[in-house]
Specification:
Elements: E1 3-5, E2 12-14, E3 19-20, E4 27-28, H1 30-71, E5 75-78, E6 84-86, E7 103-105, H2 106-118
Antiparallel strand pairs: 1-2, 3-4, 5-6, 5-7
This protein binds zinc ion (2 copies).
The site of one zinc ion has 8 residues, from loops.
């Protein structure tokens, strides 16, 4: 019976009881294979949780910023290219097409649209 050394613990086992190391570098014994699998699964879960947390926190921040700017009435729309954007700065030029004096604050636009609807 040919015995091979486990890539992880270095103990020799019968080759048929060995599994391919997930890193692809060699063979590991049954015991080590279970340990590696568990560690990897835990790591995957941990990474997943971290990504979810990051997405959640950036999402919250973005919507909070969005809500704040909306409250301040600083959403603009360019009448030339229909580009919509938020800013807290006083802007005259569209950041997308750089057309001048074609920007309308969304609040004004909503009012305008309301007036048009009402006058019909
Ligand atoms: Zn081992
Ligand atoms: Zn524009």
């Amino acid at each position: 019976m040919e015995n091979v050394k486990c890539n992880r613990c270095g103990k020799a086992y019968a080759i048929r009881s060995m599994s391919q190391d997930l890193s692809g570098k060699g063979l590991v014994c049954e015991e080590c294979f279970q340990i590696i699998n568990k560690v990897r699964a835990d790591a995957d879960r941990l990474i997943e949780r971290k990504i979810m947390n990051v997405e959640k926190s950036t999402g919250d921040k973005r919507s909070a910023e969005h809500a704040r700017l909306q409250r301040e009435g600083r959403e603009y729309m360019c009448r030339n290219c229909n580009y919509k954007f938020f800013t807290t700065l006083q802007v005259k030029r569209c950041p997308y097409c750089s057309d001048e004096n074609r920007l309308t604050s969304m609040n004004d636009l909503v009012k305008e649209i309301d007036d048009i609807i009402r006058s019909r």
